[in-house]
Amino acid sequence: MLHLDSLTYGYDSARPVLDIAAFHLPIGQHALLLGPSGSGKSTLLHLLAGILAPQAGRLEVAGTSLPSLTPRQRDSWRGRAIGLLPQQLALVPSLNVLDNVLLPAYASDQRPDPARAASLLGQLGLADKLDAYPYALSGGQRQRAAIARAVVMRPQLILADEPTANLDDDACATVVHLLARQAAQAGASLVIASHDARVLAALPNAAVLRLPRARGAA
Ligand SMILES: Nc1ncnc2c1ncn2[C@@H]1O[C@H](COP(=O)(O)OP(=O)(O)OP(=O)(O)O)[C@@H](O)[C@H]1O
């Protein structure tokens, strides 16, 4: 599913943020990117999603070598292959919950499937919130809507950025298990970036990639 070798990335070419010798993840397995703040977890998720392009090294995701794609090809590939659960959930305030979940289809020119979106929202306990707007949801409900949006297109890989930040222990375990279950149902692998050790306890079989503290960081 993932093949990373000699992968480097820096926002400024003089100072690499990431330098990964090797990391390989078999299909269907889950991975945790662990590391302190500033170690490059979000940067790596953006590389895996094809939002950023590496400066050097091998980066293969679900059989596609990302460095060989143009930015436009990466955008189209992302729409088909990747489900993203960003740190700031990024629900669109002017769209109701159902339309927020259908957004990845509109964004990638694919046919929206409202029945599937509604069914996912039902599984996530939001059956009565399809017409609600994000402002009228609790934080946990917004997060579940964002999980539905991340899996609705049956992506090969789901990328979740700090999904448990600010959650208590019970809610933390619930969110990790929801993500893992939805990934399994969609036939997807799951990569969670986190500095929260509780995520490891909730997903004990995941492969772990630990990113070192950034050089020069306190
Ligand atoms: N767009 C950007 N331009 C320049 N530098 C950036 C940019 N985004 C991140 N950085 C820098 O890259 C480094 C890694 O940031 P990143 O957000 O990937 O870390 P992180 O491990 O996800 O941190 P956190 O746990 O705090 O979210 C940091 O030093 C950050 O300041």
TrEMBL record:
Superkingdom per UniProt: Bacteria
Molecular function in Gene Ontology: ATP binding; ATP hydrolysis activity; transmembrane transporter activity
Pfam family, one: ABC_tran
PROSITE patterns for the chain: ABC_TRANSPORTER_1, ABC_TRANSPORTER_2
An example Gene Ontology CC term for this record: plasma membrane
Transmembrane segments: none
Keywords per UniProt: ATP-binding, Cell membrane, Membrane, Nucleotide-binding
Family matches, as SMART domains: AAA (SM00382)
SUPFAM superfamilies: P-loop containing nucleoside triphosphate hydrolases (SSF52540)
Residues of the ABC transporter domain: 2-218
InterPro entries in the cross-refs: AAA+_ATPase (IPR003593), ABC_transporter-like_ATP-bd (IPR003439), ABC_transporter-like_CS (IPR017871), ABC_transpr_LolD-like (IPR015854), P-loop_NTPase (IPR027417)
Keyword ATP-binding found: yes
Descriptive protein name: ATP-binding cassette domain-containing protein
Originating species: Janthinobacterium violaceinigrum
